[in-house]
Design brief:
With about 350 residues, this protein is α+β, with helices and mostly antiparallel strands. It is built from eleven helices and eleven strands. The chain starts with a helix and ends in a 5-residue tail after the last helix.
Length: about 350
């Protein structure tokens, strides 16, 4: 067993390939379990399968088919978290879980090789991904408010499946050293290695822990095509129980600006976030290191994944360029300047 294999469990959703559900099968299970007559379109995904379901040509639902390596308890955890948010924060713009004809949220499906995969259906949210080179100040503020409201709502959620191990969980970042050789660019590898060095110097145990979304990247944040306002948050597939500051670091890692003030969007996010959910001093102090670590994770994991699945390379590497840019921006700034800006933003000061 090599070093990479030792990092992962024998069956891991990032390394287990499942037999794909076909479009016809997606249509069939939608009819069988939900009584719906739909047309199906396959969507890109990292480790599971997603189908957009259309009625009369209009998107109405999303069918999610979990990877065969994912345990039922993990799927229960995700769906339970969405049900919890629906109850305690009904105004949050997230998808709703659709019950089957039998009254369940989840149903099993067996592929042609006999592997059981767990499936569930969600409502469809209108909007377009918040991707592109530039986000507006209003979007940065809106995302901060939405993320804080979600974090606040999830703070009371408990589930036995919340402790599952996920490679994208920032608290496990030290395990990524085994993957560094897969990052071929020497500058990118050095930046990522330096970030891991700093990560190993901080203590996470004292930080506030809870269930977090853990993947507020621009592809999972929808905005209105008319106004640009935040319209929804999707994809709860990376949910874990981890330090709350990690959730903030993940979101901030995609907000760097070009030019002389690369941290300005991050500070707007933080100022908005703290207006709903104040940050603890130790969380603010840890944020620069957690931020750099998340950027390093994106570089390391996506390079490894792209080497393993070259047919899905473009999708896997979609955030690689921005992650490297973020690491370079942080490396160019004095550490005390970053600390000061984040501290002031956490107090609501943006000047």
């Amino acid at each position: 067993m090599n070093d990479l294999e030792r990092v992962l469990r024998p069956r891991d959703s990032l390394t287990t390939t499942s037999v794909a559900m076909t479009l016809d099968e997606a249509v069939s299970v939608s009819s069988e379990h939900y009584g719906l007559k739909v047309a199906a379109k396959a969507l890109k995904s990292e480790r599971d399968q997603n189908f957009m379901l259309m009625i009369d040509g209009r998107p109405k639902f999303l069918l999610k088919v979990a990877n065969a390596a994912e345990a039922r308890s993990t799927i229960d955890f995700r769906v339970g978290a969405m049900r919890h948010l629906e109850q305690v924060a009904p105004d949050l713009p997230i998808q709703r879980v659709i019950r089957t004809l039998g009254g369940t949220d989840i149903f099993p499906w067996s592929d042609v090789e006999g592997q059981t995969r767990f499936c569930y259906m969600l409502s469809y949210l209108d909007g377009v991904p918040m991707t592109g080179d530039v986000t507006s100040a209003e979007q940065q503020t809106g995302l901060g408010l939405t993320a804080a409201k979600m974090g606040q709502a999830l703070s009371g959620f408990r589930h036995p499946g919340a402790g599952h191990e996920l490679l994208w969980d920032l608290k496990h970042a030290a395990k990524l050293r085994a993957y560094l050789p897969m990052t071929e660019d020497p500058l990118h590898r050095s930046l990522a290695s330096d970030a891991l060095d700093r990560f190993e110097s901080i203590a996470l145990a004292p930080l506030r822990h809870q269930v977090i979304h853990n993947d507020l990247n621009p592809h999972n944040v929808l905005v209105s095509p008319e106004t640009g306002a935040i319209a929804g948050v999707i994809d709860f597939g990376d949910m874990v129980e981890s330090p709350l500051a990690c959730d903030i670091a993940v979101a901030c890692s995609y907000l760097f600006a070009n030019g002389t003030e690369p941290l300005a969007p991050l500070c707007r996010f933080l100022a908005a976030y703290r207006s709903v959910m104040p940050l603890h001093p130790d969380e603010v102090a840890a944020l620069p290191v957690l931020l750099a670590t998340r950027l390093a994770m994106t570089v390391i994991i996506t390079n490894w994944r792209a080497s393993q699945y070259p047919e899905n390379r473009d999708y896997i590497l979609r955030n690689q360029k921005s992650a490297v840019a973020g690491l370079l921006a942080l490396a160019a700034l004095p550490a005390d300047q970053v600390d000061q800006k984040f501290h002031r933003a956490s107090q609501g000061e943006l000047a």
